[in-house]
TrEMBL record, chain A:
UniProt lineage: Bacteria, Pseudomonadati, Thermodesulfobacteriota, Desulfobulbia, Desulfobulbales
Organism: Candidatus Desulfobia pelagia
Name of a matching Pfam family: ResB
Keyword check for Membrane: yes
Protein name: Cytochrome c biogenesis protein ResB
Annotated compartments: Membrane
GO biological process: cytochrome complex assembly
Key words of the record: Cytochrome c-type biogenesis, Membrane, Transmembrane, Transmembrane helix
UniProtKB/TrEMBL annotation, chain B:
Lipid bilayer topology: Multi-pass membrane protein
GO MF, any single term: heme binding
GO cellular component, one term: plasma membrane
Protein known as: Heme exporter protein C
Transmembrane portions of the chain: 6-27, 34-56, 71-89, 96-115, 135-160, 191-213, 225-243, 250-272
Localization per Swiss-Prot or TrEMBL: Membrane
Species of origin: Candidatus Desulfobia pelagia
Keywords: Cytochrome c-type biogenesis, Membrane, Thylakoid, Transmembrane, Transmembrane helix
Biological process per Gene Ontology, one example term: cytochrome complex assembly
UniProt function note: Required for the export of heme to the periplasm for the biogenesis of c-type cytochromes.
Length: 445, 281
């Protein structure tokens, strides 16, 4: 029974399984890059025929990265990592926290890097000299009395042995973050016409409406273009409203979203309407009104006794790419109607007899926002940081240990310096040589 | 001087350097190796100035973006990364013969950028989603990783050539190469270095996608292929570290891994479709 249990654990702890899983993940991931994903069933029948399409449905190929077998494979990777860690970590932890002053002395004489010296002074003198030499080379040593002499020990980077385990743990952390995101998060979109507010998101895929407990007002949407006419930047001025009251105001761009209450609002698209936002202000009375005007249609505004009528009657390109100039016809029943040109997004002052109006015009858009709620993203980011730190420790920091045993051999002092490093032995060889040269010259000085 | 002239000169420079390094290897002429190093350093400076000038030119044109936004610019940057990685390697290991197996990659990349079909060399404006500092971090980290993997592939080829040469005439040629053990060690270290940067590249890409689209991972073909590549190198490291694979097997894995890199880089753009289609112009 216990033997069975052990072989079961050994199987899940084995690196062989890890190699198999990694290989299988790599190969099976290819499928989803070759066969289009998340298309309607008819698309697969058309592309691959009836039988293949049926097989695909059985194996979840149309959404393979969420299929039971792919998730199982990822789960197997996690299980493999966890079991392997549980099995190995205690030993590694022992290496990290080991009291190296209790090391078996007979091992010191067998290490690959070692040097022996015979200084003339007593062992106590030699010990303090060696200690100084080590300190000046950056090795902080501790010491103890051992049978027949004094043992000094110094080390660097014992914790780097944990680097590999930090990398492995980081993978688990990233998976946890991804799972939190897929269970507690969602993605959707909303289209908000300028000057209006909305509080409903439509979930991607299902189209299900989701109501927020706050609403988003789009005050203004701006589209700028390169001189090739291609869009350069979309920008929306958004206001967050809680029970109709403004609580936050922010402009967003494509790479610069708005964060509020765990939701992120990304600028993703826009919709033109071929309508125009016009504000008209009577500067004498400070009366003002906002209109949604369509080109070629008359707009009327009853203001006191006089009726104002205006319309957009023509448009013209300008030297500025993508910026248009609009011709306005304007009448307030005080003499001949005026006509004037106004740039998109501009403002014009219209003097009419003893009154003076300000006329502004801007093309009317709805801003397209993508909305996500992903409470797991910070776990994923923390996992990523852990992974980079762990990899750096695992690859570039080694655990180096130096022992010096100073003993009395036949009435003469003997100094045995020995050391090991768990990786990059070439570089350690050089470091060791530097240290022993220093010890040698200090002892013989 | 315009940037495209300077980059044209660097293509020639890397061709010349490749020829000199290969000649040094075949004819065992130590002196010509020094000439190779000189050409490489000079060409590298010219190319660096060329890339900087292209950056400046994009500001002059009113677009103002780092020269890493389309296939042409990424190929130039790829060759630049290979060369800087190679120069550091040559300095560290004091061996010029590595050049014969590394510098040609940089030349091929430049040649493909200059003469490849469908490679657009113009400086174009960036669509809004690409206007991000994370994009620059993403491209730089990925390409440093790719460059290391290219060199590891060259080292793998070098290893296999030396390990399989058995007749007398090639043996004397191969004897100038470093010991098999040394090549193996450098290959391993190069893969480790590349793996770290590839990891960084995938992470910066995820952060960028999250800041632009709200999804750090969407299994788009390019993302998936970079993960496949990452799995292959992760498996390579484990096979070596815990199962003691060495020599020929690691050399083969270095070559196979680089095929995955190349597919991530080109294959996805030309054969598959996805978010990263910007690279196809
Ligand atoms: C994609 C997933 C994985 C990554 C990125 C990863 C990363 C690493 C890295 C960077 C090292 C250090 C290698 C070196 O120093 O050359 C390592 C070592 C190791 N890995 Fe993984 N690993 C992964 C999955 C696994 C799995 C599933 C297992 C399960 C058995 C595993 C078991 C080990 C073991 C036993 C070591 C050696 C540890 C030691 O010496 O104490 N790894 N891993």
């Amino acid at each position: 029974m216990s033997k069975n249990k052990n072989s079961f654990i050994d199987f899940f702890a084995s690196v062989k399984l890890a190699l198999f899983v990694l290989f299988f993940l790599a190969v099976s991931s290819i499928i989803g890059t070759v066969i289009p994903q998340k298309k309607p069933p008819e698309a697969y029948i058309e592309l691959y025929g009836d039988n293949m399409a049926k097989l695909f449905q059985v194996l979840d190929i149309p959404d393979m990265y969420n299929s039971w077998w792919f998730i199982l494979l990822l789960g197997l990777l996690c299980l493999n990592l966890i079991v392997c860690t549980i099995k190995r970590l205690p030993n590694v932890w022992r290496m990290v926290t080991l009291d190296n002053l209790t090391t078996d002395l007979s091992r010191l004489g067998k290490m690959k890097e070692r040097k022996t010296y015979h200084p003339s002074g007593s062992i106590n003198e030699a010990a303090s000299q060696v200690k100084n030499s080590m300190t000046s080379c950056g090795w902080k040593s501790s010491e103890t009395e051992r049978e027949g002499g004094i043992l000094l020990f110094a080390q660097t980077g014992p914790w780097s042995r944990l680097g590999v385990y930090v990398v492995h743990a980081s993978i688990i952390v990233i998976f946890i973050g991804a799972m939190i995101g897929s269970y507690f998060g969602y993605k959707g979109s909303m289209m908000i016409p300028e000057t209006t507010s909305k509080d409903t998101i439509f979930e991607f895929g299902t189209g299900k409406p989701l109501k927020l407990d706050f609403s988003i007002l789009c005050e203004r949407f701006i589209l700028t273009r390169y001189d090739t006419g291609a869009p350069k930047e979309f920008l929306s001025d958004l206001v967050v409203l809680e029970q109709g009251k403004e609580v936050l105001r922010r402009s967003i761009e494509v790479n610069d979203p708005l964060h509020y209450k765990g939701h992120t609002f990304y600028q993703s698209s826009y919709e033109p309407y071929n309508k125009f936002l016009v504000t008209l202000t009577n500067n004498n009375t400070a009366q003002s009104e906002r209109f949604l005007a369509e080109p070629g249609k008359e707009v009327k505004w009853k203001m006191g006794q006089s009726d104002i009528t205006y319309g957009i009657i023509n448009r013209q390109a300008t030297n500025e790419p993508g910026v248009l100039n609009y011709k306005i016809w304007f009448d307030d029943e005080s003499g001949e109607p005026s006509t004037f040109w106004i740039l998109d997004g501009g403002s014009v002052s219209v003097p009419r007899g003893d009154t003076d109006y300000t006329f502004t015009l801007k093309e009317f858009f709805a801003t397209g926002l993508q909305v996500t709620k992903d409470p797991g993203v910070w776990y994923v980011y923390i996992g990523c940081i852990l992974m980079l730190l762990g990899l750096t420790a695992a690859f570039f920091v080694s655990h180096r240990r130096i022992w010096v045993f100073i003993s009395n051999e036949d009435g003469k002092s003997q100094v045995l310096v020995s050391g090991t490093s768990n990786k990059n032995s070439l570089a350690f060889e050089k470091t060791f040589e530097k240290l022993t040269n220093k010890i040698d010259s200090d002892l013989s000085a | 001087m315009t940037s495209s002239q300077l980059l044209g000169i660097s293509t020639l420079g890397y061709l010349l350097a490749s020829a000199v390094y290969i000649a040094t290897f075949i004819f065992k002429t130590k002196k010509s190796g020094i000439i190779g190093t000189f050409i490489i350093l000079l060409t590298f400076v010219i190319q660096t100035v060329g890339i900087g000038l292209r950056w400046y030119e994009s500001y002059e044109m009113g677009y103002g973006h780092a020269p890493m936004s389309n296939m042409y610019e990424s190929l130039v940057f790829f060759s630049w990364s290979i060369i800087i990685f190679y120069i550091l390697l040559e300095m560290k290991f004091k061996n010029r013969l590595l050049g014969a197996f590394a510098v040609p990659f940089a030349f091929v990349s430049m040649a493909y950028a200059s003469f490849g079909k469908g490679i657009n060399q113009e400086i174009n404006p960036l669509i809004p989603a690409l206007q991000s500092n994370w994009l620059i971090a993403h491209v730089v980290t990925c390409f440093i990783g790719y460059a290391a993997f290219a060199v590891a592939c060259g080292l793998g080829i070098m290893y296999l050539m030396k390990a399989t040469s058995d007749n007398k005439s090639t043996e004397s040629l191969m004897s100038t190469l470093p010991d098999l053990k040394v090549i193996d060690d450098i290959t391993h270290k190069t893969i480790i270095f590349g793996f770290l940067w590839l990891t960084g590249g995938i992470i910066t890409g995820a952060v960028w996608a999250n800041s632009a689209w709200g999804t750090y991972w969407s299994w788009d073909p390019k993302e998936t292929w970079s993960l496949i590549t990452w799995f292959i190198y992760a498996a390579t490291l484990h096979a070596r570290f815990t199962r003691g694979w060495q020599g020929k097997r690691i050399a083969w894995l270095a070559i196979i891994g680089f095929f995955a890199v190349m597919f991530t880089y080109f294959g996805v753009n030309f054969l598959l479709s996805g978010l990263h289609s910007y690279g196809s112009s």
